[in-house]
């Protein structure tokens, strides 16, 4: 029975890949009138569930604008996580991921990325009453929280000696646990961490300089070159006509993401 199930899954996977490869994904999206967009729905202010029960945030507005510029009338938001984004996009469960994925060489071997649509900076967060941790060097041998499947997880494992990494489904859960003393620190976006701390009344604070700046893009299956090309055009147009500036200032405390992107290569 187990063997039969495995064969069915394998056959279905192969069939899905064959169907995806046999046609133009962009054309399929336009024919269906729906763009399926994956995001965590749990990383404010980038993307989260609003009071009405529907996703809102920077990524959501960008995804809606992307669909509009491609002539697609509906966006279907699919909840996923950093751990499942790549496998989900490869399996065809959604057409694009718009959820702050960092563009890395390892990920580019499995999926294609759009030109950057946002940049981010990672900081060390600690309890507000903690005077002992002031930099990355102070984390050796400590327990460090990260969101599972993010580049911060691999960064902690590679850069901190004798670290004990605790993973969480999203940054809110990690920062909350940090505030309760269940971790010594958390690696997370400085902007997102500060936003979540203020919104949820968490007694945590960022310390030290930014550990690294990350360039984030939308990701697509390898058989979606036309969809990627349209996304690149849409992002370039949003930067040029002020749309990206307007959206980022609304959600990111006045930050002009178009200006931030000037230092990021278009490819």
Helix/strand/pairing category: alpha/beta
Uncertain ranges: 1-23
Distance between the termini: 47 Å
The secondary-structure element order is HHEEEEHEHEHEEEHEHEHEHHH
Q: State Rg.
A: 19 Å
List the total number of helices: 11
Q: Indicate the percent of residues in helices.
A: 40-55%
β-strand percent reads: 25-35%
In this structure, how is the largest beta sheet organized? 9 strands, mixed
What is the strand tally?
12
Overall body shape: globular
Kindly state the mean pLDDT as a whole number?
89
Description:
By secondary structure, this protein is α/β, with parallel strands linked by helices. 41% of the residues lie in helices and 26% in strands. It has eleven helices and twelve strands. It has helices spanning 2-22, 25-32, 58-69, 85-90, 105-108, 151-159, 171-179, 190-200, 225-241, 243-251, 257-260; strands at residues 34-39, 42-43, 47-49, 55-56, 74-79, 96-102, 112-113, 118-127, 143-147, 164-168, 185-189, 204-220. Strands 1, 5, 6, 7, 8, 9, 10, 11 and 12 form a nine-stranded mixed sheet that branches. It has a three-stranded antiparallel sheet with strand order 2-3-4. A hairpin with a 3-residue loop joins strand 2 and strand 3. It starts with a helix and ends in a 7-residue tail after the last helix. Residues 1-23 have low confidence and may be disordered.
